[in-house]
Amino acid sequence: MKLWGGRFNKEEDLLMKTFDNSLPLGKRYYEEDIIGSIAHAQMLGEAGILTTQESRKIVSGLESILKELQSGELVIDEEAFEDIHSFTELTLTQRIGELGKKLHTARSRNDQVAVDTKLYCRKRGLHFIELLEQLIAALQEKGAANPVLMPGYTHLQRAQVVTFQYHLGAYVEMFKRDRARVENALAIMDENPLGAGALAGTTHPIDREITTDYLHFRTPSANFMDAVSDRDYIIELLSACSLIAVHLSRLSEELILWCSQEFKFITIDDAYATGSSMMPQKKNPDAAELVRGHAGLAIGSLVSMLTIMKGLPLTYNKDMQLDKEAFISAFDRTDQTLTIMQRMLVTLKVHPEKMQQAMKDGFLNATDLADYLVKKGVAFRDAHDIVGCIVLYCEEKQCSIEELSLETFQQYSEHIDEDIFEYLEYESSLNQGNKREIRGGS
Ligand code: ARG
């Protein structure tokens, strides 16, 4: 059951057969292979390379295979065929007879696999855009529903007051850029490789505009050799997936910290946690940990693909068949992790009182006090120093800045007046300067 053999005297070694078999992963894009083949057959008819009747018969044969695969009536036998292309053509010939052998006129598996992979990447990429939009909506809604103040951190040390909504808003921006990266990758890849043949086109009078329209590409690709060698678009999507993974992983890390006993800012819903086999009290944030772990594997796929491609001479080389291992797993991971994160966000509970408490314990109004002094005419560097001394004093006394008396404040600076107490309220800094934007969420 193969597409070649005439020039061989001997069967393949059995191990070689499995070694070369790309069907277990290639079957994931059977729809694209059949739709690409339908477009090709249609074109062969319209261009007069096959008769209209022949073209119709091939198209309807392919359509029936597609339908039966979609319904589950037909199941692909992974061992019987070398790849998805062999499956499609040989199954067609089994069904419609000798005419099936004409399908591959003016085509190579090299332009066929290129078009299949592009169509598949486009389908998965469009779905990532939808998932990113759902995740962005979940972040925005969670933030809007919880208008609470919290500490913002640098070096994981409490730094300045922000709002929970604003913190989540930072992720909204990251995922918006990720969406733009996926859209950009889809825009750049929008060229039809079909018609490039093995590497040097074909002597048949094909019409690439027909398959381009049929498959909704912007234009036929310009150079045949590039068309069959190009896997840039996979790498670009994998790069977008890697950044999505990195952003999801950072968010996961924060959720893991926030749900710990040490923070207790949030509770993750039971549906996204697991327990311990030994310690009855444990509730572990496994979903977030897995999302964080998957990022390592997603980045691995990008590196694999870059490394596979970097030394290949033009044009097609069999190394490229291994691309599926990199992109299919990375795409599945992206789908799963975006979905799990969205669900985890929708269901998690926020504990405003814990956030407020952490805010009060961290001298988060120290920078505001320095700004106050500057507004009273003190140079910022001097103000910074004065407040540093006040913080040291508070640490010794184990109190917060706003608990000091006016007399104590005035021992540090004569510029401090009664109005300082209102100024030091945690909310009040967010009513001043461009900090007002923090209140606005994202
Ligand atoms: N089996 C390959 C794959 O699944 C496609 C065949 C490409 N061409 C070739 N000459 N072997 O990616």
Automatic annotation (TrEMBL):
| One MF term in the entry's GO annotations | argininosuccinate lyase activity
| Keywords tagged on the record | Amino-acid biosynthesis, Arginine biosynthesis, Cytoplasm, Lyase
This entry's Enzyme Commission designation comes to: 4.3.2.1
The places in or outside the cell where this protein is found are: Cytoplasm
Show the Pfam families listed in the entry. Answer: ASL_C2 (PF14698), Lyase_1 (PF00206)
Specify the pathway: Amino-acid biosynthesis; L-arginine biosynthesis; L-arginine from L-ornithine and carbamoyl phosphate: step 3/3
Gene Ontology cellular component list = cytosol
Coiled-coil intervals in this record?
none
Q: Please report the stretch or stretches of sequence annotated as the Fumarate lyase N-terminal domain.
A: 6-300
The Argininosuccinate lyase C-terminal domain covers: 363-431
Query: Which reactions fall under this protein's catalytic activity?
Result: 2-(N(omega)-L-arginino)succinate = fumarate + L-arginine
Q: Biological process (GO) annotations?
A: L-arginine biosynthetic process via ornithine
SUPFAM superfamilies attached to this UniProt entry: L-aspartase-like
Q: Does the record bear Metal-binding in its keywords?
A: no
Which family does the record assign? Belongs to the lyase 1 family. Argininosuccinate lyase subfamily.
This protein is called Argininosuccinate lyase
Which species expresses this protein natively?
Answer: Enterococcus florum
Q: What is the lineage of its organism?
A: Bacteria, Bacillati, Bacillota, Bacilli, Lactobacillales
